[in-house]
């Protein structure tokens, strides 16, 4: 049983007692009701109880590239950041999760190393249409595709017509297609990103590449009547057409990431390849419009796109943006990053939790996650919203100690995380592997 003055109840905070039985929330009563439990956790005056976050965009990379990240390190990092459920992306692991055999193989590595609950995406690539329904039946939460080279050869991209075919196929069993939306032809014609100057890299991934690809996703969703989701929105130019698509009744959603909401291209030093991600961090005016899109509801939620690599792949010695791997490791830091920025803008913690827990859980069908409600999984984080700390990559749980946030002062720290009512001790993995049908 957990009791305290600041417990998130719906969209507000109130003095409450929360009773947990068999991993689920069994009672929520006003503070003073006198609930009894085998263990009682008393929140300090500066602590808030929030639902565990749900991060539906995590590249764990195991098996095959475990030196980049693995389930043990990724899920420890998640728990330390208040994330109690992740959904693992189908690529960067070897083999990629594009058939049932690859999914089962990946689960073998995950099952003994899960400190939080883990679900899985399947992949949609050229030639695997016949594998999509079996993957769905085996419990994946949907299917990811790229509209340009994915960065790894074992996960080839789809052309727009092939994406439409995948959308039509997954519609037949009411699944979701999630899309890395950048147009390959636009990027092929853009300047080359080689060298240490960040501005040159930014010009190599123009907003137009996202805008064109997102327009393709919208129209193919319209034509098929399928369900789609746009990954890691970076270009604020696309917000009006996404808003229009939603107003037209299309079943389309969109996410963005902490790095697009907190970092600025104007402040990235030359050679600082820790900041490289695709699509890229853009200008301050772009960031402000992304925040506007979040606040008005056009952008549905925030996830990490935790995409780690080894230090050598970041080309730290040369700082060449054309060579370095594109990805930011932020799984452990997301809540603090967004809360630091949100409170500066007068945005309340309840909205942050909605963006980082409730809405992603709803979109992917995790019906027992993302809220502190009766019958929901007892996934909870004790969050000290006024405590500050300095980011030190060496002290993070991510496998490789690199972050663009090194030395940044953040507000809000997760002190304790519970998954299914059990406190995460970072030694005993008690997380579960989730299938869509059991979630």
TrEMBL record:
Keywords: Hydrolase, Metal-binding, Purine metabolism, Zinc. Its cofactor is Zn(2+). One of its GO terms (biological process) is allantoin catabolic process. Its EC number is 3.5.2.5. InterPro entries: Allantoinase, Amidohydro-rel, DHOase/Allantoinase_Hydrolase, Metal-dep_hydrolase_composite, Metal_Hydrolase. Residues 48-424 form the Amidohydrolase-related domain. One of its GO terms (molecular function) is zinc ion binding. The keyword Metal-binding applies. Pathway: Nitrogen metabolism; (S)-allantoin degradation; allantoate from (S)-allantoin: step 1/1. GO terms for cellular component: cytoplasm. Homotetramer. Belongs to the metallo-dependent hydrolases superfamily. Allantoinase family. This is allantoinase. It comes from Kocuria tytonicola.
